[in-house]
Amino acid sequence: MRRFSFALLILPLLLSAQTQPLINRERATELFLQLVHIDSGSENEAEICRFVVERLRELGAEEVFVDNASEKIGGTGGNVFARFKGTVNASPVMLSAHLDTVAPTKGIKVIRTETEIKTDGTTILGADDKAGVALILEAIQTLRERNLPHPPIEVVFTIREEKGLLGAKVFDKSKLKSHYGIVVDGSGEPGDLIVGSPTHFRFEAVFHGKAAHAGVEPEKGVNAIVMASEAISAMKWGRIDEDTTANVGVIEGGQAMNIVPDRCKVVGEFRSHNPQKVEALVAEWKRICEQVAQKFGGKVDLTVDKTFDAIRLSPDEPIVKAAMKAVESLGLKPKLKRMGGGTDGNIFTAHGIRCLVLPTGGENYHSPNERLVLANFYAVGEILVRTIVELAR
């Protein structure tokens, strides 16, 4: 028996009691269903790019283009950019979501009920992040149809987000005039406002030993797997503190049980909401790897790459204040939260566009049990529209 939270049960009643909805719920739902039937999970975003470009033009964008990101990162398609005029003289706001999914959805079989949308369990749904794409398109249409005040809007739909925020990384940020943005790509309940995410480092350590016959002359070998295991055991992993995590995710090495392995690769990550803490972990791991390699008479090749920088928004920043007012206008209590992962917002924030992240209404992302909770989906749509209107005040 599925368990529903009390908040989820009363949310539709609460919203209708507070105010009439602004978005067209059925239209937003149908748009989401159209999007999830476009497979975009194998670096093949060209079709979904064409779909959203057409919609953006229909909505009256004064500028729309698809960049050449695929020439730099592979696959098909490109980041989609659009610009819309505002109704007031205010700073523009960027709206962003990503077009790719973590896995293919070819042959998707969708099941829709009164409360949710899911699949038959053979594929993911793709609400991450097609729900975000649908909500942004619906928000723009709502603003136009209802003649609601809004600042100029810049839309960026990225590709290859699930591969490491690659589309956002190669997008030409000089085209953006916004100082603030809203990324619709989070998890959580309506009213959750994600104002923090960590700095993330990926590492790859390759330990080099010396091969030898394990039964005849093992003393002539240097066991690279043992080297790697000693380095791993000297480091703390998992939850380090409330800000910081560390993980070993991949170990590869060895050829056969009777050969002393001469190579072992270890791949992992470090994350922290405190940049100094994560940089200290990186330095410690480097020191340990080098000490162990020297002890065994081997060597180690260690590469460390920063995937993204942390986001830390203040409650006093205009984008956060606007979102809090939007949440309160629906009779909900805003909750400022941190997330353990990253979004394209990390990349844009690093370039001076301070990004707030909103949830999409989805649950169980990256699994066949993924679903879109319609009440939450609609509530986030209301919050998005009302936040944009607040920014016009």
Which SSEs are present, and which pair or pack?
Layout: H1 6-18, H2 25-36, H3 46-58, E1 63-66, H4 69-73, E2 80-84, E3 93-98, E4 110-112, E5 116-119, H5 127-145, E6 153-158, H6 166-170, E7 180-186, E8 192-197, E9 199-208, E10 212-213, H7 224-233, E11 238-239, E12 244-253, E13 259-260, E14 263-272, H8 275-296, E15 299-308, E16 311-312, H9 318-329, E17 335-338, H10 344-350, E18 354-359, E19 362-363, E20 371-373, H11 374-390
Parallel strand pairs: 3-6, 3-7, 7-18, 8-17
Antiparallel strand pairs: 1-2, 2-6, 4-5, 5-20, 8-16, 9-14, 9-15, 10-13, 11-12, 12-14, 19-20
Helix pairs in contact: 2-5, 5-11, 7-8, 9-11
Summarize the amount of helix as a percent range: 25-40%
Please work out how many helical segments DSSP would assign.
Answer: 11
Spatial separation of the terminal alpha carbons = 46 Å
Sheet with most strands = 6 strands, mixed
Which whole number gives the mean pLDDT? 95
CATH architecture assignment name of the largest domain: 3-Layer(aba) Sandwich
Q: Main sheet: which strands, in order across? A: 1-2-6-3-7-18
Question: What name does CATH use for the topology of the largest domain?
Answer: Aminopeptidase
Question: Uncertain segments of ≥5 residues (pLDDT<50)?
Answer: 1-10
Decide which structural class fits the backbone: alpha+beta
